[in-house]
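Hi R.,

Here's the chain you asked about this morning:
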Amino acid sequence: MIVPAKTRILLIDDHSLFREAIARLLGSEPDFEVVGECATLEEGLALLPAANIDMVLLDINLGLQQGGAFLPLARAQGFSGKVLVVTAGVSKFEAARLMERGCSGIVLKHERPQLLVERIRGLRQEAAEALAVPSSREVNLNPTDEAAQRPFTPRERQVLRAVFSGQTNKEIAFSLNISEPLVKAVLQQVFAKTGVRTRSQLVRTAIERHWKDLEEDAQGV
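And here is the predicted structure, written out as tokens:
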């Protein structure tokens, strides 16, 4: 039996008590390994090359530093893993900016701990699926064709806004009072229209092309 490799995680947060609590939480999971903890961007960037990190949990409020600056610096350094922002609060504008910079998701610190565990596993699964070569039936290979230009339906907009807020499929189903299989089906339709394969790609594409429409749609509800 082949044992899957553990997800190697780096914590960047200037509150040592919070870091220690998260490290204990994740360390109790059999598929996670916290390989580094630090309080500054410089320390985090220095750890990336040596620690073979799969995912970074990043606070965007690091004392006098803005954690969002880590995203472009890490990518420029060659880091290709996931970055999950874990913070006390974030505005809608800041969230959009983080996603544009390459953030894979946002979890608020007041959320239940198990939600963080679920998000990490979900992002890890997404990364694994992205490595697989999709068939032409699974993904629109040309996002500029007619399918990609079709507008979102009201249901697709609802689901996409929920994805923006970082909800899982199960949470979206509960909040919209629909089945989880229906959520998955709607997401597949949105993937086909935008020509992407993962949730993080979907959010970035929607921000670039459809953010204004989604905002207006939400205000009209």
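One quick note: The domain at 146-219 is CATH 1.10.10.10 (Arc Repressor Mutant, subunit A).

Cheers,
M.
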